[in-house]
Each structure stands twice: as C-alpha cells, then as structure tokens.
Amino acid sequence: MLRLFIVLAVIGFKCLAARVELDWDVGYVYGARDGYTYRRAIGVNGKLPFPPVHVTQGDTLVINVHNSLDVPTSIHAHGLLNNGTNYYDGPDMVTQCGIPPGENFTYVFETKDQFGTFWIHGHTRHQEVDGLHTPLIIHSRKPPVVDYDEELLMTFEDWFTTEFAVRQAYIDSLEDIRTLTSNFPKALINGYDGNKTAPISFVPGKRYRLRVICMSINNWFKFRIPGHKMTLIEADGVESIPLEVDGLSMGPGQRYSVIVTAHNSAEFNYMYNVTSYSDALVSQGLTPMVYTGLINYREGAPVKTIPAPGDEQLTWPEETSMQVANNQTQLPVDRQIELTMKKFTYTNQEHLTTLGSTLYKPVLVPTLYTALSMGDLAANSSVYGPQTNAYVLKHLEVVEIVINNPERVDHTFHFHGHNVQVIETGPFGNSSTINREPVLHKQSGSWPIWRDTIQVRAFEFIRVRFRADNPGVWFMHCHLAWHEYNGLAIMFIEAPDVLQQQQSVPEEMIEMCKRQNIPTQGNGAGNQGFNMTGLPSAIYPTPDESSN
C-alpha cells in the first residue's frame, strides 16, 4: 500500500510540473545604478536589473539566449545540480564554448527535486560583475519547515564605477591588491543604490519569509532588522532545522531564507541595517560601508530607535551552527583531498594566490568534451592540461575536501554540480599577524548543513564532504571574481567512465564551437594522448618560491 502511494505521488508530481520558457536578449545597457556613475553594463531585454525568475519544484526552465554583446557569453544557474545535463552548467571552456556574438542558444534546466533560493549569472568573461545576474526562486511543492504568510526578496550587490576588464587591468598592475585606493564598490540593495532602496512594508502580526541573496563579486554583507528576530530555515537551497539568529553574514554567492514575524502594533516603523565590507579591498577606510532602509508598518509613523550592540554580542549563522532539516548524518569518507591556499611569485612575475601551487587556466578544448572523447585516458588527470587543476573522482566515492586558508583574506568557494556537507572549521596559520579575533575550532552537530557555497575565513580551515553521484566536469572556484580570474580554482572530473555512457553533448553545442574554430575532441590542447603542443606555456612558482 505504501509503495502504491509513493508511485501515485511521483506520478502526481510529474503531472503538476510545467515548462517555463523565457527569451533573454543579453546586451549592453547604460545607467548609473549606484546613483553616481553613468557607465556601460550588461542587462537582459534592455533592462538592468532584470526580473527575477520564478518556477516551481519539478518544472523545466527553458531560457532562449540571444547574444547582443560583441563578445561571447554564457549563463550559469548557481546551485542547480544539472544531474544528467552537465553541458548546461555554463562555465565557458569548462562545459561549453561561449555563445558567439549575434547567435542564439537554449538552456534547459531541469529543477527535478530541488527547491529554494538560487540565482542565475553570467559565466563568461566575468559578465556577472557588470550586471548579468538575477534571482532564481524555485518554489516548493511541499509545506515549509515553518509556516509564513508572505514572501519578500532581498538582494545585495557590490557595484563598481568601471567595467570588469578595465578594473582588472588596473588591479593586475598593483604589487599588492590591498593598496587599491579607487573603484571601491557601492552597495546595491534590491538592484538600486543602497541609500535609496524602496521601503519594505510589514503588516502587523504577519509572518514573512525573506529570501536573501548575496549577488556580490567581492564584498561581504551583514543584514539585520533591529528589534526583530530572524529564524533561519534555508541555506543555498537546502532546508535547515529552524535556527534563531540576530542577523545574516553572507559572502559572495551565498543565499539564506529567514522567517521574520512582524510586531502586532503599527505604532512604530523600524530601520534595517546592511553593512558592506571587504578584507580583499581595504581601500583607505572605505570599508565597512553602512546602509539603512525603512521597515514601514504605517506611513508617517515614528521610527523606533534600537540600541546597537556590537557584532560580537549578536548571533550570526555559521557554517557549523546550521543543521539540515532531513536529519542526514555525516557521510563516511573514502578519499580526502587537502588544498592549501598560498601566494606565490610566478614565472610571469605575477603575485597570485592558488590552491596548492597550480593556477587554473582555461585550455583549448572545453574540459567536458575532453572527458567525453578521450576514452580510458579520461581517467588520467594529465590529459586535461597542466593548469586545469583536475582531480578525477570515482563514481559514488565519498570525497572529503579540506581547504586551508593561512592568509588574511576571506573567501567563498562555490561547488558546481554539488552541495557539500559542512563538517568542521578551525584555525590554520597565524592570525596574530593582523588585528583579528582568533579563529576557534567548531564542529557541526549530528546533521550538518549542506550547501553549494562555503565561507573560508582568514586563518581558517574548513572540512566538507560530498558523494560523487553526479558524473560530469564540475568547476570549484573562489567566488570573488578576480580571484577566479587569476586562477583560484580546481576541476572535478567525476566518474568519466560513467559520464561517457550516460551523456553526450547536444549537436548544436558542438557546431557552436566549430563556428568559433574551437576543437571539440581530444586532450586539453585538442591532440591525442598526452601531447599538449599548442597550449600556452604553463606558468609555475619561481624556483625560490616553490622551495618554500
């Protein structure tokens, strides 16, 4: 009887699923998003910000992209697992060739059993930095872990006065990025100047779900509504056991849902606080920057003043403090990969931070196409090129990743194709070299949270796990845009033998590469075997640096 109920439930679920189709014309737009600097940006259908995408669990989301830019483009649904459709993941020269100027391509995203708070952003030439991003909300078909009356969406962005390519050239010229003294970003809240964001309306007694998305590319954000408690119920599209917090601290790419209950009286209005800050760009006292906005209970009501305690007196969600709602226990480990961040001087004289000693650099063949075309050799990481940082994983093995950060800069790392189970954080390196509180050792509880974007704080290590149950080529990279640009990334080549049996790249994607003279078979250089002739010369730590 139970089996019959499950079968009927699955059939009913599939019958309810819809096909949601959108037409996106990706092109240049002009405006002063921060209220000050008029500049060129990237939008969709002539708009920036452009509308959030709303679908329901089980739906198929189809996005027909036309590229009106003068350079290639692609998009990535951040947090979607794309199980069985690795080729729609989006990173240029990882899972596809970019969409050429003037051409069209259709992405088909199967939400399957995923639901929660996500976002879609560009994944070619860091076009997300210049505006190519928007929320993606997948509404659940089942009751939430905490009931609520209404949903509200909040987004945080950092917005620079120049385009990514111009700013990156300037940053490349610096001996030390921390000496950057211009172009510090302004904060955008809900798509507009953080000082001019429209009020948020609360009705007395109502319970609100706030979906909060950090769509920044450099800055961290803290968000509070003084006088109101928050109950956290979701992290990165994964339901959590309800956790009461005073506010949210979010790094680039992270998302949360919190429940906020409005007061029963409309006697007072309140102010919310948003703090934007960065350890990567210290910039002469411009960090942190504080923004406030109105929580409007009643037009014209006085604003209640709430004492402001220090952050250390408040409760913030931490990677180890959240518990997953489905009570999944810690996975047993089959294999461990330890990655330590370190800054080297490379043979091209650049001073860059890597995972290990190898900078990620794109190759001549999309790495997915190499995994699909190299037969048994696809299980050998060397065929992907000396600077792909490729790790080959066996099907269904449980992989533990340990990331060590002995440096003074915080990072977030995004796992494509997977959520990861957060096991532990703790001290790594010598934090006494800067004026910062010592890092404490913290372990997750019985049911660790799963998420796709993790914070790795300065002088901290983090231990996470996942099961290699999604055959494909999956990028894992720092979500600070110029850290990714400079090679702070690795690649998981997951179960290439199973991948070759289960997936093939749509012919229109192959043809799109050929029209750009990009090879679609062979190793990272487009050759057979281990012949890397044609690849740009690899760069390595200088001899003095590599011996440290």
Give a summary of the structure in a few sentences:
With 548 residues, the protein is mainly beta. Helix content is 10%, strand content 36%.
Keywords:
single chain, 548 residues, mainly beta, seven-stranded mixed β-sheet, 7 helices, 32 strands, globular, disordered N terminus
Description:
There is one protein chain. The protein has 548 residues and is mainly beta. Helices cover 10% and strands 36% of the residues. A 7-stranded mixed sheet has the order 11-10-9-13-18-15-16, with no helix packed on it. The model is unreliable at 1-11 (pLDDT under 50).
Q: What overall form do the CA principal axes indicate?
A: globular
**Major sheet, described briefly?**
7 strands, mixed
Low-pLDDT stretches: 1-11
Mean pLDDT: 92
Q: How large is the count of helical segments?
A: 7
| Cα Rg | 23 Å
Q: How much helical structure, as a percent, in the residues?
A: 10-25%
Distance between the termini: 65 Å
Query: SS-based structural class?
Result: mainly beta
